[in-house]
Amino acid sequence: MNDISMLSLLTSASAGVKIVLFILLTMSIMSWGIILKKHFLLKKEESSIKTFSDIFWKQKSTMDVYKNIRSKNIGFFGDSFKESIKFFYTTLKENPRVDKELLNEIISGNLQVALQKKERILNQQISTLGTISSTSPYVGLLGTVYGILVAFWGLGWENGASVADIAPSIAEALIATGMGLFVAIPSLIAYNHFSNRINVLKQECMDIEDETINMNNKLFSSKSNRGNNGK
Question: Count of domains in the chain?
Fold first, then answer.
């Protein structure tokens, strides 16, 4: 009875199949490295945004928000918000007649730039996961096709050989397909999972940006009303 254990199939595999399996193993290690790195990075960013968001939505003005986060470390977007609001009120104090719409556009632009920078950082290597998930099954299939061709080539040269004689060769070739799927499935799941988490973070920051502008507009409106009432 032929020994067709997994270990024996791997050790007796043809050189072409071994090369394919090595490539897939490398892709798997790369994929899991990215997955772990992105998980901890996103977890840190989500914690920072949550801290900032919890404070932000409880306040009535951007000044109130600034006072509550001034001494806190709340991540890249929160730090950009602090700098933008500090600039906003400093400019108003120095030049009360400044163009309010232009000032709001500057604040909005600063927050958008901060968001885009953070989004680029978070999206780094995410596309690599997509590439691995889409190519690894084909790499595995290539190994399988090669292994089966070698097996049937050997069958053609051996007189009296049966299917049972080449079954181990076909089995070792099919391992490449299984390995390709083993690499692709976690990569695809991680790609979709991380993309969704990044989109949620992005939307939360965009909501904060919109509400920041609304708060500033309310401030301008209240100042305008007080000025009219004083006349």
Answer: 1
